[in-house]
Amino acid sequence: MRICLFSSKPYDRDSFLAANCPPDWHLQFHDTRLTVDSVALANGCEVVCAFINDDLSATVLEQLAANGTRLIALRSAGYNHVDLAAAQHLGLPVVRVPAYSPHAVAEHAVALVLALNRRTHRAFNRTREGDFSLHGLTGFDLHGKTVGVIGGGKIGQVFAGIMHGFGCQVLIYDPFPLSGLDALGARQAPLDEVIASSDILSLHCPLTDDSYHLIDSARLAQMKRGAMLINTGRGALVDAPALIEALKSGQLGYLGLDVYEEESELFFEDHSDLPLQDDTLARLLSFPNVIITAHQAFLTREALGAIARTTLDNIAAWNAGSPSNEVKAGA
């Protein structure tokens, strides 16, 4: 069986080869994104293994199906980049990795909180230039602050538990009833209360029609003045241009992003020799109280190993006639 991996980096190659797939499975690693222009690389491959910024629109899926692909195996939990209705019409099952390491993403969110609060990024640059002054580096105690978590899944609950360990009061919004929150020191609350009450607001929900631009200018105005916003979920949860106005006015005090709505043409590649073409992202990067990382929250050895093992297990289950972790249109 031939398996074509798009958007694969050296760490993907290492983790998949270490997972010891069956000897008659042939893995083809391609650094390029899956697009209409690169889809021919998958010709004759029964399985296409795609990542979050690969193009799995109807046009691409039609070409894959016509050229022999019979399974789409995602190396991610999210699947908003897949036209599931088209895949279902073409008879292409789509499987995903529903969980790999909630600790990886939650811990990265906490790292953004700590770095923004104590201005670690600014202090690092100063001391390297011989500037040992402390002006402008004042932070605040996390202890006693209110932390809002939007999305009470595994990642959100791990993040909540960590912040409770700092002595924070934790509020969680989720559209479904949650259990076990007492052990996390958290309380489920309505969305408006979570947004308005939080000193730190962290997004851990999936991207759906209901959550698209969940944080817009109206929601930003609803937040405490000077509060911190963290997004390690999906870029389109936040209306990025609205962030600029909130930062300029001081309504938003700190911003940490690991995802960006228009990241597909930028993230995971080195563009340092070229002018940044995205004006919104360039403006966000100019603020001293903003940290943006390039979708690296998942990037731990443990998470990469789990992604590789689950992906290969999904392929094996499909090959045996009993697909697992399948996603369908309307589900």
Describe the structure.
- The protein is of the alpha/beta class and 331 residues long.
- It has two domains: 2-100 and 301-327, 3-Layer(aba) Sandwich (Rossmann fold); 102-292, 3-Layer(aba) Sandwich (Rossmann fold), CATH 3.40.50.
- It is 34% helix and 15% strand.
- The chain is built from eleven helices and 13 strands.
- It has helices at 10-18, 58-66, 84-90, 102-117, 120-128, 154-165, 191-197, 217-222, 240-249, 279-285, 301-319; strands spanning 2-5, 26-29, 47-50, 71-74, 94-95, 146-150, 169-173, 186-188, 200-203, 227-231, 252-257, 290-292, 326-327.
- The strands form two sheets. Strands 8-7-6-9-10-11-12 form a seven-stranded parallel β-sheet, with helices on both faces. A six-stranded mixed β-sheet has the order 2-1-3-4-5-13.
- Helix 2 runs parallel beside helix 3 (84-90).
- The radius of gyration is 21 Å and the shape is globular.
Structural class: alpha/beta
Task: Bin the strand percentage.
Answer: 15-25%
Write the CATH architecture name of the largest domain.
3-Layer(aba) Sandwich
Q: Give the integer mean of the pLDDT values.
A: 96
Indicate how many domains the architecture comprises: 2
CATH 4th-level superfamily of the largest domain:
NAD(P)-binding Rossmann-like Domain
The helix tally amounts to 11
Number of E-state strands: 13
Q: C-alpha Rg, in Å? A: 21 Å
Spans of at least 5 consecutive residues whose pLDDT stays below 50 are none
CATH class of the largest domain: Alpha Beta
Shape: globular
What is the name of the CATH topology of the largest domain?
Rossmann fold
Determine the oligomeric state from the structure: single chain
Helix content: 25-40%
Strands side by side in the biggest sheet: 8-7-6-9-10-11-12
Intertermini distance:
29 Å
The succession of helices and strands, N to C, reads EHEEHEHEHHEHEEHEHEHEHEHE
Q: How would a crystallographer describe the biggest sheet?
A: 7 strands, parallel
